[in-house]
Design brief:
By secondary structure, the protein is α/β, with parallel strands linked by helices. It contains nine helices and 14 strands. It folds into two domains: 128 residues, Rossmann fold, CATH 3.40.50; 164 residues, Dihydrodipicolinate Reductase, domain 2 (2-Layer Sandwich), CATH 3.30.360. Bound molecules: NADP nicotinamide-adenine-dinucleotide phosphate. NADP nicotinamide-adenine-dinucleotide phosphate binds next to helix 1 and helix 4.
């Protein structure tokens, strides 16, 4: 295939035009704040309830975001009749119990990434969702950004040729007292950061057939940095690096015989990329406003559309893909020990 003369247009629907659902939030931490702020600023979704382990934290969160109902328990949110969909924003190791709480209460459920701490946990969540007959999805927000719709079209059109290689990194400096340093909260870079790397590599190259990895521990005992070499079906490779001890460019590259695609850092957030011909035929640039976590609303609009349509998940992030990501992360973790 010759180098394209222009990039495909993003087919992402207007988030503000999605049907309005009433959301309840579990947890009042960093991502919960950003999720609710993004919904309030960019969507027609309504956050009607928040639950916390403490009434005071729920009330402070509700006051910050103009939410009517503040509950001192998660049980109260999943039991509230006026909540259509529950968003789980608790630490990784709480995702399974909180997801079961919500699903068994019959609520549609959006669970922060990763779906569980292992693929075994993720499969338990998928089984509970099927049993309950409600919508369930991992909040892998990157999949719903317009940038990734353009990227998926380029891959489907084979604009990069083949075979493809992926090189990607995600390193961020964290203070010693951050949640990510705590073993009892399933800390470490794999579930928080490398989940984006593995999701990207699986999306570009398909299923993984072999995993090699090395890691070193941080002082708290969680993994501090990891380098992984994945072999994908057909023998293609991805090389991934993640660390908690420093800021790396956080770019992602897909290289093929026809063209290379370099996603600007941070590759998992709204932003741009450049597609450059391998044969010197020029380059094409995609840009979208780099609004960081203000972009969380794209996934909320998708959730609202799918639930309203009576669907149990989204084809852009089916539970099977979340489980496949955790299968690879489990294998990387094993290879590091
Ligand atoms: N999509 C993204 O870009 C993104 C970014 C960051 C994090 N995340 C994901 O979101 C989840 C939460 O991360 P975060 O950075 O928001 O964490 P955080 O700031 O520590 O907040 C987590 C919240 O969970 C609740 N919680 C329940 N059990 C807890 C426990 N045993 N220890 C501490 N908190 C507990 C707390 O709320 P209450 O006290 O109110 O109950 C706490 O505020 C993680 O799974 C992470 O992977 C996603």
């Amino acid at each position: 295939m010759s180098f394209p003369t222009s990039l495909p247009r993003a087919r992402t629907l207007d988030p503000k035009a999605a049907p309005t659902l009433r959301w309840g939030v579990l947890g009042t931490g960093w991502i919960a704040d950003r999720f609710v702020a993004s919904l309030r600023k960019h969507s027609s979704q309504q956050v009607v309830a928040v639950g916390s382990r403490t009434q005071s934290s729920a009330q402070a969160f509700a006051d910050r975001h103009g939410i009517t109902a503040a509950y001192g328990s998660y049980e109260a949110v999943v039991g509230a009749a006026d909540v259509d969909v529950v968003y789980i924003a608790t630490p990784h190791n709480a995702h399974l119990p909180n997801a079961l709480l919500s699903l068994e209460a019959g609520k549609h459920t959006l669970i922060e990434k990763p779906l569980g701490t292992t693929a075994v946990e993720a499969r338990q969540i998928a089984a509970a969702a099927e049993e309950a007959g409600v919508f369930c999805m991992e909040a892998m927000w990157t999949a719903f950004l317009p940038k990734y719709d353009v990227l998926r079209q380029l891959l489907a059109d084979k604009a990069l040729g083949g075979p493809l290689s992926v090189v990607a990194d995600f390193g961020e400096w964290f203070a010693d007292d951050h949640r990510i340093m705590r073993p009892e909260l399933a800390g470490g870079p794999l579930l928080d950061l490398a989940t984006y790397l593995v999701t990207f590599a699986l999306g570009a190259l398909g299923p993984v057939t072999d995993v090699a990895a090395r890691g070193q521990s941080a002082p708290s005992g969680v993994l501090g940095q990891v380098g992984a070499l994945l072999t994908h079906t057909g023998g293609t490779q991805s090389v991934l690096h993640t660390t908690l001890r420093g800021n790396t460019p956080t770019t992602a590259v897909i290289a093929g015989t026809e063209a290379s695609l370099v996603v600007d850092g941070p590759f998992y957030q709204p932003g741009g990329f450049t597609l450059t011909s391998a044969l010197g035929l020029g380059s094409l640039r995609y840009d979208e406003e780099p609004i960081a976590h203000e972009g969380l609303h794209f996934q909320a609009a998708e959730v609202a559309r799918r639930i309203t349509a009576g669907e149990m998940g989204s084809p852009l992030r089916p539970l099977a893909d979340s489980i496949a990501t955790l299968d690879v992360l489990d294998a990387i973790e094993s290879a590091c020990h």
